Amino acid sequence: MAQAVEEKVGIQDDRGAEQPGVLHLTVFSASDRMVRGLVMLLAGWAIAALAIPIPIVHLIVLPAFFLGTPFFAYKRYQLVRSMESVEGVCPRCSQAVTIKLETDDKLPKWTYCPACNGSVQLVQASTAAPVV
Fold this sequence. Notes:
- It contains two helices and six strands.
- The protein is α+β, with helices and mostly antiparallel strands.
- It has two domains: 3-28 and 80-124, no CATH class; 30-78, no CATH class.
């Protein structure tokens, strides 16, 4: 079963100032990853099957989905952690911010503060400043 997890991270700006933050992510178990991969595989092949009776479309959609779906199903199976967002205080503008992340982002990651549009880096807790 997927678990919502929080980890401590650091939010650094390009001048060296740093603030603590909280990373929100989802961790998938092995069985959950298997189910997600199989659902992706079956859904892609179902779309390919639905394209069979459509005259011209099936010449492109059928091979694309039939051959491409295993790749995307495998990538979905490989996804152990899904990053969602980081909450904290921007070291540049001192405002509380929530920074949205892509599913497959890795730390450290440079991004922009949604409040002041300043450049910030999200770093692991081991290199982050201690949370006070």
